[in-house]
Amino acid sequence: MRINLLSSFAAGILIATTISGIVYFSSTSDTPKTAAKIATNQKTVKVQSSDNEMKKNLETKGYVVQSKAEYDKNMQAAKATVQKQAPADDKKPAKEVTRVVVGVSDGMTSIDVGKMLEKAKLIPNGFNFSMDVEKKGLDKNLRPGTYVVDSEMSTDQIITTIFK
After folding, report:
1. Which of 21, 49, 55, 89 lies in the 20 to 30 Å Cα band around 99?
2. Contacts of 111 (CB under 8 A, 6+ apart)
3. pTM for this predicted structure
4. Which of 123, 119, 107 is nearest to 161 (CA)?
5. How far, in Å, CA of 100 to CA of 148, rounded?
């Protein structure tokens, strides 16, 4: 491109922008002035609804409206039922189950899987885990993928899940 052509194009854009700006800022619009006149002529009157009207409006929109006394009464009833049920639950402590998603990628060995399971505290020793896998002859069956194991599974179940 020649420099004269480029400078002429730039000058044309500058002139068009200037003209558009002048028209935009100097135009007389009646809309804002009319709105200002209307706002000064009107007085805003705030009407406050009664409690019953507000309650009816909220109930028609699907809200549940309670007084403070009703709310406190319902909360005490709920707490009483929870306290009656709580002693029965304390007798049997729930056993925590840990779920682990094991991601096996290309090139991983049974030792790597054992280390991951040991870090997740699903097995006591990762090396012994890999020895068990080798004793069963399943170390060649390790395929890439994601496997879900949990703390309730035995070592044999974990091996059959991961080494299919």
Report:
1. 89
2. 126, 127, 130
3. 0.42
4. 123
5. 6
Strand segments (E) across 63-141 = 99-104
Cα–Cα dist 17/52, whole Å? 60
Here the tokens at position 99 are 């779920």
CA dist 36 → 29, 45, 72, 125 (Å): 12, 18, 50, 80
Identity of the amino acid at 68: K
Encoded tokens for 2: 């020649």
- Which secondary structure element, helix H or strand E, spans residue 47, and what is its range? none
- From CA 113, how far away is CA 103, in angstroms rounded? 9
Decide: 104 and 144 in contact? Cβ < 8 Å.
yes
Q: Are 146 and 103 in contact (CB under 8 A)?
A: yes
Determine contact, residues 100/148, Cβ cutoff 8 Å.
yes
- The residue type of 45 is V
